[in-house]
Specification:
By secondary structure, the chain is α/β, with parallel strands linked by helices. It is built from three helices and eight strands. It has a single domain, classed as 2,3-Dihydroxybiphenyl 1,2-Dioxygenase, domain 1.
């Protein structure tokens, strides 16, 4: 089984600076929507993430489009092997949840990606 999150976003391009430039994902495919990107698949180390614009979802499958214009609300919990690498990639980026160690033994740090979705990077605390 494979689960791939699809983030509904205002603009795919706005999130590419975070996911590709900062976090090291590669855009493996994209579908144009006029002059912009309407859908993209990103990958890194076996992980996959899809992004689709709200306008594209409304055209493709309107019943899956969020009510109104709000596209935020997804929380991604990403367990990484190398927490120091994730922390370094976030250097200078606004941190929404400061680094912490949880009662369940995970070191975590959280941010909001440019389209407003919450992303928590975590690794087992040693």
């Amino acid at each position: 089984m494979k689960i791939t999150p699809v983030l509904i976003v205002d603009e795919v391009e706005k999130s590419l600076t975070f996911w590709v430039d900062r976090m090291g994902f590669t855009m493996v495919t994209n579908v144009p929507e006029g002059e912009r990107i309407g859908f993209a698949i990103l990958a890194r180390e076996g992980a996959e993430l899809m992004m689709q614009t709200l306008s594209s979802v409304r055209r493709d499958e309107p019943r899956f489009a969020p009510e109104g214009i709000e596209t935020r609300g997804t929380v991604l919990f990403i367990e990484v092997e190398d927490f120091a690498d994730a922390r370094q990639r976030l250097e200078g980026y606004p941190i929404a949840m400061p680094e912490r160690v949880t009662f369940y033994g995970m070191r975590e740090i959280g941010v909001s990606e440019p389209n407003g979705h919450t992303v928590i990077f975590a690794a087992k605390a040693v």
